[in-house]
Amino acid sequence: MRIKPVLVAISYLIGAILAASLAEGQATPRIQFEKYTLPNGLEVILHEDHSTPIVAVDTWYHVGSGDEQVGRTGFAHLFEHIMFMGSQHVPVGAFDQMLEAAGANNNGSTTEDRTNYYETLPSNALPLALWLDSDRMGYLLPTMDLAKVNLQRDVVKNERRQSVDNVPYGKADETILAALYPKSHPYSWPVIGSMTDLSAASLADVQNFFHTYYAPNNATLTIAGDFDPATVKKLVAQYFGDIPRGPAIQRRTTVPAVVIPRDTFLVLEDRVQLPRVFYTWHSVKDFAKDDAALDVLAQIIANDKNSRLYKKLVYDLQVAQNVSAFQDGGRLDGKFQIDVTPKPGQSVVHIDSLVQAEIADVINHGIAPRELQRAQNSYKASFLNRLASVLGKADRLNYYNYIVGNPDFVQQDAARYERVTAADVQRVAKTYLGRPKIVLTVVPEGKKEMMLTGRGGDR
Amino acid sequence: MKTCRAARVIGTVIIALMSTRSVVIAQGTLDRSKPPELGPPPRVSLPPIITRVLPNGLKLMIVEQHELPLADFVLLVGSGSTADPAGKAGVANLTAAMLREGTTTRKSLDIADQAAFLGVSLAPTSSWESSSLSLHTPTAQLDSALALFADVALHPSFPANEFERLRKNRLTDLLQIRDQGPQIANIAFPAIIYGTAHPYGLASIGTETSVKSLSTSDLQSYYETNFKPNNSTLIIVGDVNPDQIEQKITARFGSWQRGTIPQLTYGEPPKSAATTIYLIDKPGAPQSSFRIGSVGVPRSTQDYFALTVMNTILGGSFTSRLNQNLRETRGYTYGAGSRFDMRRAAGPFMASAEIVAAKTDSALLEFMKELNGIRQTVPPEELSRAKRYLQLQLPGNFETTQQIAAALVPVALYGLPLDYYNNYVQSIEGVTEADVARVAQQYINPAGLAIVIVGDRKSIEAGLKSTNIGPVEIRAMSGQPVQ
């Protein structure tokens, strides 16, 4: 669909958030905002908050590691790094120097689904952020060269060493992804990528990626904080309005089917003192019907002292050092994971039988009202906490805008968790944790015999 | 050009919203070649700190912040790991952790259940100089949350079974540290520069030997000695009314009995040895963990602001010299930095990075280049950037209730004046080029550094020797000489 060459201004007039939130106690407040689209397709979301004289500028590009080509894993994140290396009017190094001199903090992040760039700065310095961000959106390539790519390639390889290769159990994640998803699935490789693919990234790749994805019509600029909206709209138009619209972007909306016919047992040797078992099930994407119930299930299974597995394995029997569980739903797909680290001398087979028994208990007998209420109340509080900073609010607006197509969704999101019933939790446990799974045991080097095999017997 | 742009800004305020064409005209005159001229920075007006003292000596520091229906409480007790009795390293750490493990009327699981039910976070921590219990709560649950908070703070029962569980957990933590080069380096570095006779040389989580030797009576005794109202400040930030909250706190904490707090003696840290490379073997490590430094300064130093500016230039910001050199110029690391950890007594100065193994020796040469270079006069624009960065980011550090509460901790702990942050901008402004050079020369001595490197000895030792920066001593994971 082509957007007509006029500024589309959609104003959402929302009542005073403070009065509402105070009256309703802990209820999640709405985030007041205004959204419009520039003729070149750039979405702009504004949220005023004058409580502190600072502004957060948060730009989301609708591209992530899931959009990468075969042989170029890690490229979206490498590209994120390159975006800080200067652009046509911003010399190398000046991006950070100017922002620091203005009292700003800045960073970026990449996920499977999107890449974001953000600054938090004193309100007077907002034009600086807009100048810098518009220059790299529109004018990145004229001064791009292989030296910039090579430098950030080295930095990113060190990021991988620091977060994966030199971290105990660090390679578990990519091992699980490769086993859970088919090769053509966008979530089958890690965001950080492989060393081989990082080595292969070329200057031409940078140019192609920029032309394909880094266009105003593939981005959302959210500004939250202490500003005058009329002035900011004018500045945004000035800085971003002349950046040409890019070609229409074809992003996948579906993923290959995930088929796990039977439990799959894997082993990975690592320089660790203790083994760790990771159970991973294919689940659902973010905001799918069962996503919130799976979040609540994770909370009830492992994320609190009274949770099922923590209480049984870590607290009562003291056979495990720690346990965690999470539902990880992305834009396109999702997984549910539990991991357990046995205490020294404890067999993973014994641990496994306890884990299976607890899951079976939830599936067969359901959960108590208090378990549900604790999990729901924790979620309720977490929604409030995310709104404490202007950057947190900018991030929420962008997130909802991107995933559900509407920035005005924090209350609907919170309501999903309120609606979860004990029966829902029992049902999703049965539906998803009853499926065949990937079971990875990370074992100390030379101790492959410690792995779980599903054939039972103590080892 | 900048006046031109400013005039354009005024001219298109309304039209820009209505018509694409006027936007295009505006864009036609935009000069991207220079950064925009910025208006004056917003005036820093930090929220006032209201102080009260209860009859038992408990100090209250209250900051009102009504943006969201939330409140943060930090009960800050002025004793931490430095008050661990001799041979009992880990007592303060375990005492804090045990607060949540049972009171005279609540069991461990009840405390966790109630906190989760209320949607509050209740977190004990301990550091070198303090122990604290933090509460983050929606104000809708304020009374119930405060009841739980006060009970956990004032009536811990140190149940033996819970202690045994935590002890086992700590011993396993200590075992798992062997897997982590950066953690090994974090423990070995202070052990080397302070020795094990000084409290700063001991790991606050203790050692296998010390943790095994502890009993609940050690914790009980630590608690009864140090957890006293006259040794504590309760920081309160959020959607509260000062008079009402003082009443609520008095009701909960008013009967807490004062006591005599023993004076701590730290002893002199050992004199720094000639620069030496202490190499700890971590076979196969793809990165080498660098911790380079020496004994630094106490928080009470007169040179606080000069040191803060100097360290911002050396390794305290993204554009600092260490990060620019080791990351942005050479790509040896994901990040390099430095800090002066200022405590009651002289805490460590430490530069650090995780360096790709193959560049271990090259990186050491660059570290030394920067640690020498900072002793020379700093160019004015670099000084100015560091000062602006420190001054102008201040308001952003006072945005959320949790940030404000954290900012008040050093004020309470080190007795900083209440207008400390209001004078911060001016204090930074007063730092001169000469001050920066002087403190760098005084506190960074390239001839007296401990260079602790945890990495793959087989592949990095020869290179390190060839740098001739100092002798290479092989150390055990604890930082102690290899037996």
Give the gist of this structure.
The complex is a heterodimer of chains A (459) and B (483). Chain A has 459 residues and is of the alpha+beta class. Chain A has 16 helices and 12 strands.
List the helices and strands and how they pair.
The complex is a heterodimer of chains A (459) and B (483).
Chain A: E1 8-11, H1 17-23, E2 34-37, E3 43-48, E4 54-61, H2 75-82, H3 94-101, E5 105-110, E6 115-122, H4 126-138, H5 146-165, H6 172-180, H7 195-200, H8 203-213, E7 219-225, H9 229-240, E8 264-270, E9 276-282, H10 291-302, H11 308-316, E10 320-329, E11 334-342, H12 348-365, H13 369-385, H14 390-403, H15 410-419, H16 422-433, E12 438-444
Parallel strand pairs in A: 3-7, 8-12
Antiparallel strand pairs in A: 1-2, 2-3, 4-6, 4-7, 5-6, 9-11, 9-12, 10-11
Helix pairs in contact in A: 2-5, 4-9, 10-13, 10-16, 11-12, 12-16, 13-15
Chain B: H1 2-11, H2 15-18, H3 20-28, E1 50-53, E2 59-64, E3 70-77, H4 91-98, H5 108-118, E4 121-126, E5 131-138, H6 142-154, H7 160-176, H8 181-194, H9 208-213, H10 216-226, E6 232-238, H11 242-253, E7 276-281, E8 287-295, H12 304-314, H13 321-329, E9 333-340, E10 348-356, H14 360-373, H15 380-392, H16 401-413, H17 424-429, H18 433-443, E11 450-455, H19 457-466, E12 472-475
Parallel strand pairs in B: 2-6, 7-11, 7-12
Antiparallel strand pairs in B: 1-2, 3-5, 3-6, 4-5, 8-10, 8-11, 9-10
